[in-house]
Amino acid sequence: MANIREEIKKRILVLDGAMGTMIQQYKFTEEDYRGEQFKDWHVSVKGNNDMLSITQPTAIKEIHAKYFEAGADIAETNTFSSTTIAMADYEMENYVYQLNYESAKIAKEVADEFTAKEPHKPRFVAGSIGPTNRTLSMSPDVNDPGFRAVTFDELRIAYKQQTEALLDGGVDVLLVETVFDTLNAKAALFAIEEVKAERGIDVPVMLSGTITDASGRTLSGQTAEAFLISVSHIPLLSVGLNCALGADALVPHLEAIASNTQYGVSAHPNAGLPNAFGEYDESPSQMASQIQGYFDKNLINIIGGCCGTTPAHIKAIADIAAVAEPRKVIA
Description:
By secondary structure, the chain is α/β, with parallel strands linked by helices. It has helices at 4-10, 19-24, 30-34, 52-55, 57-69, 84-87, 96-117, 152-169, 182-199, 224-231, 247-258, 284-296, 311-321, and strands spanning 13-14, 74-76, 124-129, 173-179, 205-209, 238-246, 264-270, 302-303. The protein is 43% helix and 12% strand. Strands 1-8-7-6-5-4-3-2 form an eight-stranded parallel beta sheet. Strand 3 (124-129), helix 8 (152-169) and strand 4 form a beta-alpha-beta unit.
């Protein structure tokens, strides 16, 4: 069986693009989201994309297949919000195991199909672990700066549940992504280390932070280099950045990470910045030409796309990644 730790030394690995962007194209109704299992659910669930792995599995399978066809090596599970904390918005905390397990199983089935067809290009599944909609470092109440909407232990428990279900579903790697608060990420990493120790396994871990604006800092105030230092005590397959900014704007922050770590470096930027309608206008060729700069500077081991990216974007990126040299890593 192919080992992602070995593959990352041989070539630049391509991560898939945006799940949400692709789901929007299906124009699912409230009834479509509910499906049979949740047809009588007591709150509105439209927009709960993660539950589509249960109610519309064929669509999720198709999306994974389109990204693999475009040249992706790694598919992310449809589980960005599949924690008890994030699912509380839909009162679906009790379905977190099923959400993660089914999402992982679907992605793994598609990955295995493509690996069987193209054994020279093994496909992997990354269990997507999002930041949740709460933050440990900041108060959501401007009148009470000491207040916290969640505790470290609550996050740790939620992330542990998610990790266990993703592993049961067959993921090859865990991806803690869109980190806007490093303390949230530490809760996730702590939970993952707990599960690894309890199961006696050594699953690879990817970590990806988010620079929120032109200040060059995460929401909790860290520069890219400070973020890296804060998490480097954990053995990681890769550390990098995703979301918030387009490919060009990430360059100085990726340079700061790449010059200060022996881990792999990943990036999955947005297709530019959103326009007035919240849509992303950057074409596949525009995005690929910017990402070429990453390869020219030898910054990257794993490259993909975040908000606004489609299989066409991933194909354009995969085409140039195929002839680029990967950054040297100790994994």
